[in-house]
Each structure stands twice: as C-alpha cells, then as structure tokens.
User: Fold YdbS-like PH domain-containing protein from Actinotalea fermentans.
Amino acid sequence: MTEPWPTPAASPAAPDAASPAAPPTPPTSAGPFDPPGVTWQPVSPKLVTVRLISLALSLGLPLVASVVVAALVGVPGLWAVPAAVAAFAAWLAILVPRQVRALGYAERDDDLLIRKGIMFRTLVVVPYGRMQFVDVQAGPLDRWGGIAKVQLHTASPASDAAIPGLPPTEADRLRDRLAERGEARLAGL
Assistant:
C-alpha cells in the first residue's frame, strides 16, 4: 500500500527530538486539466452510439448523393468526392469514442468541474453560487439511446457548461443537487 504523502528519505543520523518535522508536501497535479484530489465521473458509453448514429444520418446523404452523381456523370475524377466523404466519416467514427471517453465531471464542495476534449482540452469550473438555473435536455435520438444532457446556465453567455450523455436518473439527481447547492450558495451571499 502506498502512502498518500511522500516521505523524506531517512538520513543516517537520528533526528533530534527538538527539531521540527518538515511538513508533508501536498500531491501535485498532472497539469491544469487534472486538479489534485478530484475523482472524475465518466458519461454513459451510450453517448458513443447516439453520436455515431447522428454522424451516419448527417454524412449518409452526402455520401449517397456523391456516389449517384459520380456514377451518372461517368467522370472518373468525381469518385474522389465520395471517397473523401467516406474517409471523413471513418475518421470521425474513430474520433467519437475517444471524445466521449474524454468527457467527465466532478462535484466539489464549492464548484462543479467539467472536462472535455482530446487535442483541444477544456476544463470548465462553475461555482455553485454563479449558477442561475439548471435544466435537463434530451432530443429524440437521446431519448432512444437512454441518455440526457444537463445544461448549466450562468450569467455569462459564453459559458459552455453542459454534461451530455448522462443516464436520465443521474441527470435528474445532478440537476436537483446542483440547484440545491446553487440556492444554498446564493443564500449565503
């Protein structure tokens, strides 16, 4: 079992009882996107399926249309268009599961943390006292997949505080808990 705090190496001489012990050093974070002592909650893996179906619906029509046009016109160079659409769809199909695995949230005593992104990472910190209201959203495809999105609204219009891909029971629990904590923080101001 490892100790939570690193211990200094033992010195050959015995420490003097009168000398004060050095305070333990707190654990350091792995960077600005991984604060120390935070346990991240992942989103539902069902979000991958919902996003892949949405991707197929949005790129399926351009793929079929470009194949039909390339076949009817008969110009060999036009087959590059459906090949490019198919390559883009394949790249996104590989990227979507990684993006979903990168999503997470953590509830702390004073704020909510939301992280996302692989190449362009984002960490959003929303203080409970700054939340104006919290709502739960689910479109038809989300409801079919059994997931919902919790959207946090603050005074800042640029705030992108949303947690997609939560099971409906977790979305309800999180909405109620965040609203309760937000009211408690506002009452304390």
Q: What stands out?
A: The helical segments are 46-73, 80-102, 140-145, 168-187. Residues 1-15 have pLDDT under 50 and may be disordered. Residues 46-73 form the longest helix (28 residues). The chain has four helices and seven strands.
